[in-house]
What we know:
Blueprint: E1 23-26, H1 31-45, E2 52-55, H2 59-68, H3 78-88, H4 119-132, H5 134-141
Parallel strand pairs: 1-2
Amino acid sequence: xxIPPRRGGxxxxxxxxxxxxxxxxxxxxxxxxxxxxxxxxxxxxxxLKPVEVQYYQQAADTYxxxxxxxxxxYFGPYPTAAYHSAVSGDTKIVGTYSGGxxxxxxxxxxxxxxxxxxAEPVRDAINVVIKNGKYRQVLAxxxxxxxxxxxxxxxxxxxxxxx
Length: 163
């Protein structure tokens, strides 16, 4: 997950937990929301100012708010932020954090309806392009090499369930 401020913005402090700017957009129900709200709780318990969370439905709305200064940073999925940064020139990625949290790398995936027979053929097709190098070429084209997985898996270990 990247933390891209507007061009010219300062990187996040190195100290932990992350001290977000005043206003940060999040997607409802996302890994990013869970992580940032947990950091915000820790920061408030430590006597720091709370973050103002803003929810946007569309990525375009988030980037417009960032460009206009209504928000100071965006904490969201790396692929879309990397693409936006590469093509718009309006943002830069100043930090990343695993979607799985501090203790694990999240294996974020594509899904299909259980039992429809597509999972294994899709996995096999992805593994062919991983093996022949096309997968890395596509990731490199879009600056997403950090997102690479060594193989496609059906039902990989997921993020911990919260109950």
